[in-house]
Amino acid sequence: MSEKKVGEKCLVMLPGFMGTKTDFNTLSLLLGEQFECMPLVLGEQPVTEQRSVSAEGDPFEEAVNQWFQQFHMQLPESFYLYGYSMGGRMALALASQMQQQQPGRIKGLFLESAHPGLQSDTEKKRRQQGDECWVTALKERPLNDVLRDWYAQPVFSGLQEAQVEQLIASKAHLNAAILQEQLQIFGLSQQRDYRSFLHQATVKHGLTVHFFAGGKDEKFRQLGAGLRGPQLHIAEHCGHNIHFEDARWMANAIQSTIEH
């Protein structure tokens, strides 16, 4: 790959919870003429082995940053950042940190079905309780059974049965103990609200942010519509997992934002 291509059109990609590098294979292939795609994943090693959190820091942001440190030497001076679901929330944390410490390094931010953050302690407590139920399930039940329940959630209701089976098969090899830890560290209840950051970053600092939501995903369509700053793109025929359901739509949408 040429240095010019990496420097000008590198797209760092963060998958969602239980994500693997192969999640982006089709999308990366479709974007290959325009971007050097670099999918990063949480990996198979326990996050706590690399983790230390300062007393005054934001635990979620510090955990994301410490995980990201291992990739610094592989990345160009500037790049585009794309994240899906949990990966999108992690992308928000990275963008927030870099806006303060390395302004201009992120050339554009793409968020697919990514929650900007809960807005009350009540919401956070409810979500944490829900996440703990998943952690317990991962401890006590076969992973395939948990995966089946995971994709039975309303947010994935737009998936066809064959698509669900494909997703389950692609994640059946994952380590349940590490998934438990990742959910506890990077779960939505651990994250601050990034709405103010998104508004300030786009309006005051000129960061281009695009938010993608599925037309059949009412929750995230409404979340995207309520954000100030990001440009909202709706995949009318898709649900939560747009890049999986229609990678070509997602590729075309990303390409069109760069071309304009």
Please give a handful of descriptors for the protein shown.
12 helices; 260 residues; Rossmann fold; six-stranded parallel sheet; globular; alpha/beta; single chain
The percentage helix is 40-55%
Give me the strand/helix succession.
HEHEHEHEHHHHHEHEHH
Q: From the helix content, strand content and strand pairing, which structural class follows?
A: alpha/beta
Beginning-to-end CA distance, first to last residue? 25 Å
Shape: globular
> How many distinct domains?
1
CATH C-level name = Alpha Beta
Work out the number of β strands: 6
CATH topology: Rossmann fold
Query: Helical region count?
Result: 12
User: Which sequence of strands runs across the widest sheet?
Assistant: 2-1-3-4-5-6
Could you characterize what this model shows?
- The protein has 260 residues and is α/β, with parallel strands linked by helices.
- The protein has one domain: Alpha/Beta hydrolase fold, catalytic domain (Rossmann fold).
- It contains twelve helices and six strands.
- The protein has helices at 3-9, 25-31, 59-68, 86-101, 121-140, 143-150, 161-171, 176-186, 195-203, 218-225, 242-245, 247-259, and strands at 10-14, 36-39, 79-84, 106-112, 209-214, 231-235.
- It has a six-stranded parallel beta sheet, sandwiched between helices.
- Strand 5, helix 10 and strand 6 form a beta-alpha-beta unit.
- The chain is globular.
